[in-house]
Amino acid sequence: MENGLYHVTTRGWPRRVIVGADRDREDWLRLLDRLATRSNWRVFSWVLMSNHFHLFLRTPEPNLSAGMHDLNSGCARLSNRRCHRSGALFQRRFKAILVEDQTHFWELSRYVHLNPVRAKLVQLPQQYHWSSYAAYRLAREAAGAPPWLDWETVLAEHSKDLRKARRAYQRFVEAGIEYPPASPERLAVGGLFLGRASWVDPMRKRLADEPEDVNVPQRKRLTGRPTRAEIVRQVQDHFRADFLDLTQVRRHGNEARVAAVYLVRRLTDERVTTLAKPFGDVSVAAISQLLSRAELRREADRSWNGLLEDLERKCRKTAVTRKVKCQDLTPMEA
């Protein structure tokens, strides 16, 4: 659903661990980063447990199913490869509850952050590393949070003064240790809707009346996202590259082309198959290999990682103040 607000859960098969060691959790978090960025998700809270995970998020575009498919299939591939096994990792695709807007932000994010406490892994949620709770508690952690983690919207429900809001939220979460909040699945009407009856009834009717297409805007508040044209122009400006530079396949050290392909794939919903022709008319496998090398280099090369982060910020800023017009685009950029 466009602009849909969801609580999403995915569980592994009984007694099958989806993440074991910290390197598995780091891999999963990298997958989430790629998918949330590419799908334009606004994630309000997340937690990764050994056998399941929770996400509380908004989908400005109707792409929850596609994004979750990529996230879960990517996680399954990594887990099966590492454990030398095959077969399904998760019980089902995922379970999503549609949430009424602006009524459950604190309650749902608290429920997500208290998962490790309920599982008796820790006594306090801040003792568990694999969740978004640190960004809510500490300014330095929030400063390093990925752009898709929207902790500010949740805290702003209490106060525009973030220091006061952080303290209030921490007290609210800790109160849930002694008096645990109810599961969203238990509270959801029909296992699908979480909200007031005045919202649930028309929402249920709308979904029943439109079985083939439920992607009707609930409230249009899309966040800006760059187009391929805007990304290409930012890369060209930085590298002082021209149109032909981005199509030269066998040119050694063509970082402009690598950066352009990588950022278009990361910041838009374009598939690998659509990038092969405009960036040199190469095979899909060649584009996939380029993307893999660029991602691995980010982890090993701090200057390369910093360059891509800087270009990403500029692309996002351009999207917010978009002035590019369709008639100005070159055939590659269109």
Question: Helices and strands in order, then pairings?
Answer:
Blueprint lengths: L3 E8 L10 H18 L2 E7 L3 E8 L4 H20 L11 E5 L5 H9 L1 H4 L14 H5 L1 H5 L7 H6 L5 H17 L5 H4 L5 E2 L2 H13 L18 H12 L15 H13 L4 H4 L8 H17 L1 H19 L14
Parallel strand pairs: 4-5
Antiparallel strand pairs: 1-3, 1-4, 2-3
Helix pairs in contact: 1-2, 3-8, 11-12, 11-15, 12-14, 14-15
Description:
- The protein is α+β, with helices and mostly antiparallel strands.
- The chain has two domains: 4-209, Transposase IS200-like (Alpha-Beta Plaits); 228-328, Chromosomal Replication Initiator Protein Dnaa, Chain: A (Orthogonal Bundle).
- It is built from 15 helices and five strands.
- The chain has helices spanning 22-39, 64-83, 105-113, 115-118, 133-137, 139-143, 151-156, 162-178, 184-187, 197-209, 228-239, 255-267, 272-275, 284-300, 302-320, and strands at residues 4-11, 42-48, 52-59, 95-99, 193-194.
- The longest helix has 20 residues, at 64-83.
- It is globular, with a radius of gyration of 21 Å.
- Mean pLDDT is 83; it is low at 211-223 and 323-334.
